[in-house]
Amino acid sequence: MASRIKADYPWTVSPLIVNAPMAGFAGGKLAGSVSRAGGLGLIGSDMDMNRLASELEIASKIIHDSPNLVKASQDTLPVGVGILAFITDIEKALPVVQKYRPRAVWLFAARQLSDYKTWAERVREVTGGKTKIWIQIGSVVKALEVLKLCKPDVLIAQGIDAGGHGFERGAGVISLVPEMRDAMDANGFQDVCLVASGGIADGRGVAAAWALGADGIVMGTRFLAAEETLIHPTYRDAILQGKDGGQFTVRHKVFDNLKGPTIWPDGYDGRAIVSKTYRDMEEGVSIEEIRRRVKESEAATGKDYGVEGRTAVWAGAGVGLVNEVQKAGDILEEVRAKSMDVLRGAKSLL
Amino acid sequence: MASRIKADYPWTVSPLIVNAPMAGFAGGKLAGSVSRAGGLGLIGSDMDMNRLASELEIASKIIHDSPNLVKASQDTLPVGVGILAFITDIEKALPVVQKYRPRAVWLFAARQLSDYKTWAERVREVTGGKTKIWIQIGSVVKALEVLKLCKPDVLIAQGIDAGGHGFERGAGVISLVPEMRDAMDANGFQDVCLVASGGIADGRGVAAAWALGADGIVMGTRFLAAEETLIHPTYRDAILQGKDGGQFTVRHKVFDNLKGPTIWPDGYDGRAIVSKTYRDMEEGVSIEEIRRRVKESEAATGKDYGVEGRTAVWAGAGVGLVNEVQKAGDILEEVRAKSMDVLRGAKSLL
Residue ranges per domain, chain A? Predict the structure, then answer.
C-alpha cells in the first residue's frame, strides 16, 4: 500500500503525515507548508467559496516556489481540501475544485452516506479523476457501506480521541484501525488506503498507527501549534497549556449549541477543552442560560478561550503532547524522525 | 525498562502480555496458563477470600507442573491478583497475599488515592517486598500523585477503549501512554514500568503499544475467548459475534445500576455491549423500569446476555478483533508472533 501512497502523492515522504482540514484554522499557508515538507497539506472546509479560493491561491504560491513539488504534482495542486458535506453547496464548490484541481478532496459529515457517492462522482468528473477522494469515517460497518457506494481512494479512520468534530459513538484508533483494515481486506478493498486520525501528536503515535496498519496519519491538535495556522493567540495558549489530554478535553454536543441549536446532523459531537461552559452544563445550568453567558463573555472579550473561558476550544486528547509553537515543516521533520527512531528501536526486541 | 521487566518477571517473554484481572472471569486456570505461556497471568478481584484462595491454589498447581517456571519465580507465585480496593477488606486480603505471595497485586478503584499507599505499604510488608505493586490509572495528573504517594512498581495506563470498569473520563492509549510516560520521566519516575490497557486485542495493538512507550500490554476482551476463562457460553457467544467494536460497545454508568444503585465510587463507569437495556435507557425508560425488566428477563433465562439481552456484557472496543476460542497459550503465542512480524516489517520503512 506504501506504493499506492507513493504513486498518488509522489512528493510525500513515508510515513505519510497529513494535517487535519480544521475549518477556520488550516488555511493555504499551513497546507502549502505541510505539502512542501513532504506531507499532504489540507485546507479546512469553508462554505464561502471566495475564501476557499483565496486559501487555494495562497497554497498555490507556496507550492510554486518549489519546482520539485510542482513537478511531482501530476497536473494537480498538491494539497487537499476539506468539505463538510452537510453544509457545502456542491454546485458552488465544484467550479473551485475544477479550477484548482487539489490532489485530494476530504469529505466529512454528509447527511446520508449516499451523498458521498454524489460528491465522489462529481469531483472525479470535473477533475478527470485527478482529485483523490478521501472520506472520514468512524465505524467499520459504515466504512464498508461507503466503500461499496463509491470506493474512495482513502478512508480516514477517525478515533474518539480526535479534537473538534467527530462521531458521537466510536473507538480509539487502537481498535478502530486494525478492525477496519481487516474488514476492508476481507471485502475486496485491499487497494484502498487507510489513514488514522485521532489522538496522534508525535512520532510515537505515528509509529503506533503504522503498526496498527495505517498507510498514513493525520494530526490536528499538533498543527494548532504550527506557526502557519490561522489561530487566535489565546486559543493557541490554551492548547499549549493543556495537560492530561483525556481530562483536559471532553467530547460533548454542548459545544455545538452555544449560539443556538446545533446545525450538525445527528450522530456527531465534538471534543473541546473542559471550559466554564462545560462545567456550567455539568452543574445543570440550562442551555438558554449557557448561551446567555457565552454571549455576555464574548461581548466583553471578543472571544473567550481557555479553561476559564466560555467559547469552544476544540482540541484532541493528544493536547498534552503539544508543547511548543513550531513551523509546520519542523513538526513534520521532528515527528517523522522520532517515528523512525522508535521503529529502529524495535531491533532490540527482535 | 525491558531489563526491569525481565528482572521482576524473569519467566516472561518480551513483549510482556498480561491478562486483565477480570472479576469473575479470570480465575486460577487462566492466570496459571498465561504465566506458563510466558505472560503474567492475573486472577480477578474477589471479595470472598476463600474463593480467591481456591483460585490461587488452581494457579499454583498449574505453575508447579512447570519446573522452569517455579525456578524463575523467585520464591513467589508467578501470577498476580486483582484487588478492587473500594470493596476489598484489606485485613482479610493480606493473609491470603502473605500465604500465596503472588508476584503482583494489581490495585484498582480505591475510594481515595491515599488508600493505594496503605495497600502498597502493607502488601510490601507482608511479602518482604516480593509482591510487586501494580496500580491502574487513567489520568496523568493522578498517575503522578500515586507515584509520589507510594511509587508502585508498575502503572497500568487504562484507555477508554477498555471493556468493563474504567474511568468515566479519559483518553485512548494512543494519547494516554506517551503523555504518561513523558510525565513519569520528567518527574523522576523513569524506573517505574508502564503497561498499556484498553482496546488492544492482537499483535498489531501490542506492537503499537510498544511504539507508544509501553513496557507491557494488557488484554481483557481477547482473553474472554480463552478456553481457560470462567465464562457462560452465551456471554462468550456475544463476544465472538461482536463487530465494529466502537458501535457494538459503549461506556455508560447504567450498566452498574441494573440491580440497584451502583456501589462504585464516583468517576467510574464501564464499557459493555449495546444491549436492550442500553437502548431502553436511550429511549428514556426510567431506571426503575429498566431494573424491573432486567429482573424479569433474568428470572426467565437465568442470565440474559447478548445484543437482545438485558444483562450487562462487559467488552472492550477491540471486541471486533476477537473471533475465535483459543487456548490462552495459543493467544499469547499468536499475538507475540504477530507483533514481532509487524515490527520486523518496519525495516521496509527505514
Answer: 2-231+324-348, 243-314
Test B160 with A246 for CB contact under 8 angstroms.
yes
User: Which residues 6+ apart lie within 8 Å of B7 measured at CB?
Assistant: none
Q: How far is the alpha carbon of A244 from chain B, nearest alpha carbon, in Å?
A: 5
Burial of A74 (0-12, 13-18, 19+ CB in 10 A): middle
- Nearest Cα neighbor of B199 from A271, A160, A349 is A160
Prediction ipTM score: 0.97
pLDDT tens readout for residues A44-100: 999 999 999 999 999 999 999 999 899 988 899 999 999 999 999 999 999 999 999
The alpha-carbon gap from B228 to the nearest alpha carbon of chain A, in Å, equals 24
Is the minimum CB–CB distance between A242 and chain B shorter than 8 Å?
A: no
CATH of A2-231+324-348, one of 3.30.499.10, 3.20.20.70, 3.40.1190.10, 3.10.129.10: 3.20.20.70
Task: Please state the separation of Cα A44 from the chain's center in Å.
Answer: 8
Whether the CB of B74 is below 8 Å from some CB of chain A: the reply is no
Of B172, B244, B320, the CB nearest to A172: B172
Confirm if A180 and A135 have CB atoms less than 8 A apart: no
Q: Which CATH superfamily is domain B2-231+323-344 in?
A: Aldolase class I (3.20.20.70)
**Nearest-CB residue to B161 (from A172, A213, A244):** A172
Q: Are B207 and B339 in contact (CB under 8 A)?
A: yes
